[in-house]
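Structure (tokenized):
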């Protein structure tokens, strides 16, 4: 092959520090817009972003020249820096240290997109911790308790 090709869909999930309910409906569009901007800066195509007051979900194509760790570090660090510079929240804004990043089959992109865009409805019945545990079990990862 003379050219490298890749198409890796990623469903990423991360929470606000201590799962504080900082992402109110009023600022949610700004938060999602900045996360989108950070992903675009990393040359990642963004499909959709969703979430509730204490966490976000992102569906994007990973730039083949970037590692997952570098992308997540940039989007979390760049966004929280902007939120604090502009005083988006009354208190200091920070993301939790960890994150989840899961590959998504092309055939499952529509289902994951619908799931991400329906977060408010989904979280009327399921807590973030329950959702987190389900992801760990689904992907065969150890279930550790997050703070």
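Design, position by position:
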């Amino acid at each position: 092959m003379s050219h490298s090709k890749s198409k890796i869909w990623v469903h990423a999930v991360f929470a606000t520090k201590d799962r504080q309910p900082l992402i109110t409906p009023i600022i949610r569009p700004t938060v999602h817009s900045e996360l989108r901007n950070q992903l675009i800066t990393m040359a990642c195509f963004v499909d959709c972003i969703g979430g509730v007051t204490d966490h976000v979900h992102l569906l994007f194509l990973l730039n083949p020249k970037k590692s997952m760790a570098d992308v997540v570090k940039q989007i979390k660090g760049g966004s929280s820096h902007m939120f604090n510079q502009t005083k988006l929240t009354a208190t200091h804004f920070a993301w939790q240290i960890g994150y989840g990043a899961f590959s998504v089959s092309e055939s499952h992109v529509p289902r994951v997109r619908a799931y991400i865009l329906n977060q408010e409805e989904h979280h009327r019945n399921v807590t973030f911790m329950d959702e987190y545990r389900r992801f760990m079990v689904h992907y065969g990862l150890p279930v550790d308790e997050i703070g």
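Reviewer-requested clarification: The longest helix spans residues 68-85. The beta strands are 9-15, 45-52, 55-61, 100-104.
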